[in-house]
Amino acid sequence: MPYCVNCGVELSNTARRCPLCDTEVVLPAGLRSPAANGSLPQQRDVAVSAFDKRLWIQVVSIVMVIPALISVVLDAISGDGLTWSLYVAASLGAVWVWCVSPFLYRRNIVPLWIALDTAALLGLLYVVNGLPPSGGWFVPLALPISLGLGLLTLLVVGLARNRILRELHIVAATLMSISAFCMLVEAVVDLYLTGALRFQWSLLVLASCVPLALIAVVLQRRRPIVEGMKMWLRM
Amino acid sequence: MRSGGQSHAPAVGRWYRLDNAANVYPAIRSQKRPGLFRIAATLKEPVQPELLQQALDKTLKRIPSFSVRMRSGLFWHYFSHSDDRVCIQEDVVNPCMSLSSGKDNGFQIRVRHHDRRVALEVFHSVSDGSGALVFLKTLLAEYLTLTGISVPATHGVLDREAAPRPAEEADEFAAFAGRSTPRSRREQRAYHVSGTRLPHRYLTITTGTLPVDAVKVASQRYGVSVTEYLTAVYLCVLNDIQASEHRRRARPVKVEVPVNLRQFHPTETLRNFSSYVFVGIDPSHGDYTFEELLSSVHHFVRYEATDKQLRSRVATNIRTERNPIVRAMPLFIKNRVISLGYKLSGPALFTSVLTNLGVVHVPREMAEHVEMFDFNLGPSEATRVDCAALGYNGKLRINFTRVIQEPLVEHAFFTFLVRQGIPVKVESNTE
């Protein structure tokens, strides 16, 4: 019977490492009994979700498709071709993508659904831009703002999911992304309206977010505070 | 259990009210807190699945309160009895995960087998440890009978040929509380062990096997019971772990110790009938020696785990259940209120759970074919590490369930016992 030289506890003949301290168990050849490991099940239970993704997609699809179809039919029989119903159809289509995209795949591929959501937003704005009174604002305004929003979201979520950012660092990155997005919006709008770049209100957002982000970065170093916050938020 | 249908009617079509303790679990259950616990028996021969399934079918006829599905009413959850077959499942390395409406067919129990092991996993609304142990013993007795070994209906094994008795399905909480005055739930928030979460809702079970005699000698040396001794050791190591974190402000270290109310109020019920006491110390009062801790635990348990104190604690829950405002709330609001209440007066108030089912006694005919019993709690994201123990055949099996990677608590606990001169054999589901 093997013992852990570090903990002093007896271990099973199958153990290669102590479960308590991870110290390697050295046994003379022939004393280890691999057959005994058969008492440990090999199957693993997977966590099941009570949320029925398929039912959700079906319900959302029905709720979106029926009003869209009714709008298109009513608009078509009114005689002027498809006009206002395109707003309705495009809006419902975008809402459908936003509601359904997280549940399309068995694995939760977050970059994919952020990309789909951004594409849906761009599609909606493109349709609105193309309908009278059209403005030609899609390329100079909607495209950079929507892409900026999508890329910043993708950046923060990607860093968090890959555990490059953790806990309060995620909060700090989110705050900095909000300020960056506000500056982008102000820059794009200024360039579209006046042709000149003058940061004003976005600097106020930046001035609010930077101190908060710094506080989050400092607090992240205090493990008891982080654990306390996680405990409160998780329960 | 208060039965909503006629208690002597055939089981089919019957529905049951949840008992006072059971009402909390459906509102708070999640993948992070599935609310299951598990009792397992390791036989001396490999299990024959076909016979185990037959034994389970018959046992569920005898104990129909385990053959139920959870339903949502307008105001409360309730159990509906079903005669559908509860199918046995192959055991897994990570037990006590959330019940699934598909794989578990909506039932609130699982029976699993692997090699020589038979395991019962029970959602806590259905029963407590003592009730589940009676079910498992009856199941094993029926299984052994089918293999040709006759087991008498003694030592907690029910007579499989008899009809179910209404007393076995009774909710005894209100009768136990009587006219006792409710007490305050106010407690200080407790310290919680920190660590790195295991991925994918995985959990690690570390089992320590100790000679019961050695633990008894150690506890008698200090003039305390085995549970008090284990609780003091647990508090001591949790306190040391908190001290090693160098917190600016140390929180109280408290262990929730479930108490079987059947010792105060004899009953045949197989439903929930247990309460708890919070045993703890406040490190801000100064450093505790192990002897001081033992004395503190001993006197606290002797004061708190008494008939009067426990009646008062149960009366608090009865008062909440009978509150007209709570009763009038639709279930979807009530679930959120219960969840919030649990957040404020649940795991936030204790560091961990230590439950000791005591010594398991079985008929001699069964003992010859059962090598050991095991008891473990399901995962809890709030406490992160919980502990369950039982004694059988001269051995005390202590199971730690944890959802964090670091085995800090088990390491400190078992090495403490080794230093006390108690030999410990350690196994884990990660081997």
Short description:
Chain A is mainly α.
Structure, described:
The complex is a heterodimer of chains A (235) and B (431). By secondary structure, chain A is mostly helical. Chain A folds into three domains: 1-34, no CATH class; 52-135; 136-235. Chain A is built from seven helices and one strand, in the order βααααααα. In chain A, α2 (84-100) runs antiparallel to α3. The radius of gyration of chain A is 28 Å and the shape is flat. The two termini of chain B are 42 Å apart. Chain B has helices at 24-28, 49-62, 129-146, 173-177, 212-221, 226-244, 290-304, 307-322, 324-328, 331-345, 364-367, 408-419, and strands at residues 15-17, 36-43, 68-72, 77-81, 89-90, 109-114, 117-123, 204-211, 253-260, 274-281, 352-359, 370-377, 385-392, 395-402, 425-428. The longest helix of chain B is centred in the middle third of the chain and has 19 residues, at 226-244. Chain B has 431 residues and is of the alpha+beta class. Chain B folds into two domains: 15-177, Chloramphenicol acetyltransferase-like domain (Chloramphenicol Acetyltransferase); 199-428, 2-Layer Sandwich (Chloramphenicol Acetyltransferase). At the A-B interface, β1 and α7 of A face α12 and β15 of B. β1 (10-11) of chain A pairs parallel with β15 of chain B, so a sheet runs across the interface.
